Amino acid sequence: MPKTALLPSIFSNRMTDIEQPFRPREKLLEKQKYFQNIHKHTYLKGRFDMITSVAIPAALAASALFLIGRGVYNMSHGIGKKE
């Protein structure tokens, strides 16, 4: 028995067979043209995207800087030490 007969059937297909694309090429080209010509970033297109992408991270950064600054001030002035 030749060794090639032991291989699964997925290896017996010719490598020249081309798999059909999931979407038609015309639709892909249409979507590419649309997304390449937009002026705003794609992740800021929705109504509430500015809140989730800009406002929440800015608020987290501002509160972190405030807490770090308060901690440094308290440590340098000896406030809140346990006896």
UniProtKB/TrEMBL annotation:
Entry keyword set: Membrane, Mitochondrion, Mitochondrion inner membrane, Transmembrane, Transmembrane helix
GO cellular component, one term: mitochondrial inner membrane
Residue ranges of the TM segments: 50-73
Compartments where found: Mitochondrion inner membrane
UniProt signal peptide: none
Domain of life: Eukaryota
Pfam families associated with the record: COX7a
Major subcellular location class: mitochondrion
InterPro entries recorded: COX7a (IPR039297)
Protein name from the UniProt record: COX VIIa-like protein
